[in-house]
Write a structure and sequence with these properties.
By secondary structure, the protein is mainly α. The chain is built from six helices and no strands. The chain starts with a helix and ends with a helix.
Length: 150
């Protein structure tokens, strides 16, 4: 349910604000909510936190597909979206192996979730570093402005 709400809510927010910053916030919040799962709290609050993790992680991944479509030029757009999807699938395959490795280290539960939640924060930082001056949508806008000005 959290992923569904995150997909719809993230899409709605992306229509109103810059999609890049919506996804950055969703990934960062996903990491924070994942760590919050270690806090001693009531069952109801824990269910909310779990839903928020789904909304901010899986929901954000779905919004990233739309973001990829805006970033890549039309002649390579399908390749860009395919790469985003493929890397996401590789992460889904590698994650259980990495989490198994983390669990085998027998760290305290809080540290396990801190390490796993850090992946969302790293993703947020990586997205924040994207230069939109090189994106297809920005180049198209610059071309349109130049052609209409002349």
């Amino acid at each position: 349910m959290g992923a569904v709400i995150g997909s719809i809510g993230g899409g709605w927010l992306a229509d109103r604000f810059h999609i890049k910053w919506v996804v950055v916030c969703m990934y960062a919040l996903g990491g924070v909510f994942l760590y919050m799962m270690t806090l001693k709290t009531s069952t109801e609050v824990l269910y909310f936190i779990i839903a928020a993790v789904g909304a901010c992680s899986t929901g954000a991944q779905i919004v990233v597909y739309a973001y990829s479509g805006q970033y890549y030029p039309s002649d390579i757009r399908s390749t860009g979206i395919g790469m985003a999807s493929g890397i996401g699938r590789m992460g889904a395959i590698a994650a259980p192996l990495l989490i198994g490795l983390i669990v085998s280290l027998q760290l305290p539960l809080e540290q396990n979730f801190l390490v796993i939640g850090a992946a969302g924060v790293v993703g947020a930082i990586a997205l924040a570093c994207i230069n939109h001056g090189r994106s297809a949508s920005e180049l198209t806008l610059k071309t349109l402005k130049t052609s209409t000005a002349t």
